[in-house]
Amino acid sequence: MKKLIVLLLSVALAVALVPFQPLNLEARTIRILLDGAPMTVEVAPVIRAGRVLVPFRALFEAFGATVGWQEATETVTGQLGTTSIALRLNREEAVVNGRTVRLDVAPFVMAGRTLVPLRFVAENLGADVTWDESTYTVTVVRQAALRNVRIAGDAHSAKLAAYANPNAFISPAELKQLMDRNEPDVVVIGVINPTLAIIPLHAAGSPIAGSFTVWRGDYCGPNSPLALAPALGGMARSQEVMEGLLSRAGATPQSMIVVYALDALHDSARFMWQIRQLGHRDVRLLDGGLNAWRAANFPTGRFVRLVDQPVQTAYKAPNHNPAVNNVRLGDVITALQNPNEWVVIDTRSADEFNGRPSTSSRGAFGIGRLIGSVHIEWVAANAPDRTIRTREEIAAAYSAAIRGRKVIVFCQSGVRSAHTQIVLRDVLGIEAYNYDGSWIELSFAASEYSRNQVPESVRRTVLQHIEQWTDNRGVLR
Hints:
Layout: H1 2-17, E1 31-34, E2 37-38, E3 46-48, E4 51-55, H2 56-62, E5 66-70, E6 75-80, E7 83-88, E8 93-96, E9 99-102, E10 108-110, E11 113-117, H3 118-124, E12 128-132, E13 137-141, H4 155-161, E14 169-170, H5 172-180, E15 186-191, H6 194-197, E16 212-214, H7 216-219, E17 220-221, E18 235-236, H8 239-248, E19 256-261, H9 266-277, E20 283-286, H10 289-295, E21 326-327, H11 329-336, E22 342-346, H12 350-353, E23 366-370, E24 374-375, H13 391-402, E25 406-410, H14 416-427, E26 432-435, H15 438-446, H16 456-464, E27 466-471
Parallel strand pairs: 1-13, 14-20, 15-16, 15-19, 19-20, 21-26, 22-24, 22-25, 25-26
Antiparallel strand pairs: 1-2, 3-4, 4-11, 5-6, 6-7, 7-8, 8-9, 10-11, 12-13, 17-18, 23-27
Helix pairs in contact: 9-14
């Protein structure tokens, strides 16, 4: 017994003398996505002091920066436009545009390469950086250079320049100017119903010359991961579907994407809203759409369906996030319950708001309206020529309803409301969100048809917030 005790003590002492080995976090593969595409580096990224470090040359050159090395001071340098960055080996400090800045971790040499903190360098070069702990992925989104398209002395340009975010819009004359000078990497996509294009002499058959066309089924449909039930249609399709469309258009994350529509100009706003969820920075709405383009006698061409085109580029979403400018059913209910902080705007027609059947209410599971919502039809933002009104006119139309509150907008299927969301966000600078599910999802949740498909508590809650309600009893009409 005594020998056994001595043996156990010896083993315990031996184990105690073994140095503690901390969990090696660097053993996991760190993935870096640069504008949606995997970044290639000669030496695998590592983590030190909670920071990801990568070879400096690969990082600087990925941004198009000029790279330098000062042997005497062991300093790496990068120059991009007017921005200069200098980092010294084993020193927790850097010099940015002549100003000394403290670092969380010092650059060091590994496998013959100098590694520098990725976030510090990327953010000082103007990029957005996010870290996903679950996948060990760093997402870096470079800022696209936004091109100035305004035309001096032009009244339409002056109207757009006065908006809170003028770079969200472009006039027909401005787009024509880009085309005339063969501006590179400009992609133009029309959101036009193809059934109209086969009608002789219909404007839909003569879109903007050189543009592609898409329609709702190309980018919206069932099986949205955000929907209450997979069968609910009309919601945003997957990241891969959107990337596929933009790849066929020849787009890159640095492209200027111009979207336009015909007559019902809310369709282009909806497509723009979904492109923004990819993290694409430079996407613009053609003010007045094809109507204004044709009125200016600018060139039109043949109808080209984007889904039928070959893949031209390998477009990757810079930073896909389906929650961008978007809310879900629970957020709408919360907003209705907090009227001091939120206002919910119903952008449907007066008939729809008042619980009367109309051509626009087809496809829902019932008719009615949300108690406490404010009705401002989406066309309130439009001038008689279907361009967007001036900033002052938009403010006059919406300010009384908003009163400093955050906004959620909805319609039948998130199309008309996408137009209002962009107007509020980019014309007035208001925090506004589109409810993708809109009345189709609300009516589904409230209907008898949804029994056993959604929790009964959800159904009761939605019904408590609806008035003028008529259940279609499972019939879509």
